Amino acid sequence: MAKKKVKKAEEPRGDVINYSHETSYVPPSEDAVKEQLEWFRDQKLGFMVHWGPYSQLGVVESWQLSEGDADWARDGVDWASDGDDLREKYFGLANTFNPLRFHPDQWARFAKDAGFRYLVFTTKHHDGFCMFDSQCSDYKTTSPDCPFHTHKYADIARHLFDAFREEGLGIIPYFSKPDWHCPWYWAPGQEKPIAFNRNPTYNPLEKPELWNKFVEFTHNQMMELVTDYGPVKGLWLDGGQVKPRNNQDLRMEEFAKKSREHTPALMIADRTVGGPFENYITPEMTVPDHAISVPWESCVIIGGGFSFAFGADYKNQRELVHLLMRVVSRGGNLALNLGGQPDGRLPRQGMMSGLQLGEWLKTYGEAVYETRLANPHALNIKQGRQELEVVFTQNEHKGRVYAVVLLKEEQKPINKLRLPISLLPRRAIDLKDGAELMIEEGSRHFTIQLQKAIDPREEPALVLALEHTV
What we know:
Elements: H1 31-43, E1 45-50, H2 70-73, H3 83-91, H4 104-113, E2 118-124, H5 156-166, E3 170-176, H6 208-227, E4 234-238, H7 252-262, E5 267-270, E6 297-301, H8 317-329, E7 333-339, H9 348-364, E8 372-383, E9 386-395, E10 400-406, E11 414-419, E12 427-430, E13 438-441, E14 446-454, E15 461-467
Parallel strand pairs: 1-2, 1-7, 2-3, 3-4, 4-5, 6-7
Antiparallel strand pairs: 8-9, 9-10, 10-15, 11-14, 12-15, 13-14
Helix pairs in contact: 4-5, 4-9, 6-7, 8-9
């Protein structure tokens, strides 16, 4: 029999994950979930945090445990002699994880000031370590083996979620479907050795008794997050290899039914799997090069990696503004990631970058939050000797289209904006100061005269509101 070509989505990958194509998107049938998705699309900016015992070494989260991912995930590992030694030491990090400087209210205040609207937090990554008090596992922050278990914030996720809700932010727990600490996933004594790759050590079709135990274990943990750590807006489910097409049927229809009996509006992002339980698609470390009309969210690091990295560089305000506007103008949300430090704080430089974005959003957030796709969503225009990148969003309720010129620091000051659009706006407003600007009509274009030239060295973007309704 000829070998079938394996789809990329089923191949082992590195730390950049493929995403489902929008043409295969299946809208949810539940009205409550549809309404929640509209809430989600209004928020635009999420705060993602990867955090766990691995932060003590400043290494990539979980991935080095898998022999199938060793070629990329173990770069810089100088603290283990081989895979077995690495796994013993990695799993042993739970015994020294003691983030005494963790203050959930400070994290939440930062997120609010940075303009974030919801939290995506790693309650459990592929290594299986629980940042919540799961009753299904002893591998967690509240276990006696973890020195942090006596701390008042030992149940990290609970206190973090409560603090973020207090600031008015939504909660979407990140949860890994594969669990490399669980004896029913990387089961000993099976067809393949422990950690052979990111998949189970056995064929679930041939060992249903093992697989059913794993499914029950996983359902119970996910239900804990929905019932005991709610209200939550959704679940961000990682580990796309766990899917029926890969002989790893987690019975998501069964889980969705019982979880939505408790939380009817629960969004489920079963990422890269497709079908009715991938309620929004999740590009990773990339921005699609085209507009997408279905719900989606790109997760991108502010700096370093998804996990905390010593000596990392972080994006500046201009880079974050441009990233955010490219995502939003193409119809998506942006989940910006910072990795928590081993002492319980967020990295200072990363926080500074986030707060600079928040300052920009205080003035220009109207062009971001509660907006939808505009037509056109982007134009590259030539003005004089300069090429200008202009992206657009719109708020139909306000009757406004927003034109955002993404300015490069090396560009010359501009005092006007000529748009090759035939529909003439009734008014043009500079969002920086609310000033109404002069519009000159041309043949199949119009020109907006600025009151004062904008210097790209001082501003990352020019933001104008165009009104078309009376």
